[in-house]
Amino acid sequence: MRAALAAASTFDTTLSTREEWLTYLDTWLTPDTRYDETERAADLQSVKVELRQAIVIPQEEWNALADQDGRITAVVDGDISRQGVPADQTGDMTIGTADVVLTTTSSDGSSGELSFDETIRVSVQVLCGAGSVPTPNSAQQAGDCKIVRYFTEPLEP
Questions:
Q1: What's the pLDDT at 110?
Q2: Of 31, 56, 77, 147, most Cβ neighbours within 10 A?
Q3: pTM for the full model?
């Protein structure tokens, strides 16, 4: 859960493009087992669109940070509140909410770096169970914990 909460905000613009990073984040995702098999692919595609448009930083901000050789590291600060997922018959899905400290580091224009912290509250829905679908050509296995979706606003129990 900690890794899932931090994943969408941890990246290094010197190591990848935004699209490469988003492709990597896609490997963390699995379909929502509450939906019928025929609806899962469409729902997963919607989750990917939402991730790109409403969760991660926009391309313009990525570019500005990349111009300064920037990176952001996200770390969960404190406890994670957990709650069940409505209509999940398996009990394998959980929503986790926590404060996440984002440390932004970038070049200062000379030979040094500037760094600052910002705390945000984040919620993510995770599936840990037989319904989790491994990413093809990866070391993942069915049942590995994977992200069903990030929320645009934190959810409180």
A1: 87
A2: 147
A3: 0.91
